[in-house]
Amino acid sequence: DIEGLVKAHAARRSQGLAQRLLKNYIFFRVPVMRPDGVLRGLSGYVGWLYSPAFALLTIAAALVGLFLATRQWDAFTGGFPYLLTGPGVAVGLLALVVLKVFHELGHGLTARRYGIRARRAGVAFMFFVPMLYTDLTDAWQLTSRRQRVLIGAAGILTELVVACWALLLWSFVPD
């Protein structure tokens, strides 16, 4: 109701400056784009990623990758100290940013698959630590609990898929 909204707005305005600064220090967002057009364009090309055949191939890639990594365990673990060097930190940060973009694409594409529009995407800051976000608040309208859970889990599942294929690829690329 309008009266409730007016009262809530007045209550927010009556907060002290210190309270508002503290609240905005803890968490704030910087919208960068409206991703729905990009997601609509990509969704036609990535439908195969949701197939049972791709899921089985990814599981097979993970198992073969694990097997091959255990056969070269010293070489596999020997590469980790590189990540503590200057170039290693730079490569690691770049990989993390790319992975987080895929993470958010996973949420967005899965939501798009179920007819949910992505309102905004950008960078959110929690205690001034940046993190990407995709606003999918319309997902609550889905009646299927399974679809809502899949949208929420899509980011982590995307990261797992990337990890499975990267582990397999590690065995075949040079240092």
Proportion of helical residues: 55-70%
- Strand order across the biggest sheet? 1-2-3
Tell how many strands the DSSP assignment holds. 3
Q: Could you tell me the radius of gyration in angstroms? A: 21 Å
N- to C-terminal distance: 62 Å
Structure report:
It is a single chain. Helices cover 63% and strands 11% of the residues. It has a 3-stranded antiparallel beta sheet with strand order 1-2-3. It has 175 residues and is mainly alpha-helical. The relative contact order is 0.15. Helix 4 packs parallel to helix 7. The protein is built from 7 helices and 3 strands; from the N terminus they run ααβααααββα. It starts with a helix and ends in a 5-residue tail after the last helix. A hairpin with a 2-residue loop joins strand 2 and strand 3.
Keywords:
175 residues; mainly alpha; three-stranded antiparallel beta sheet; 3 strands
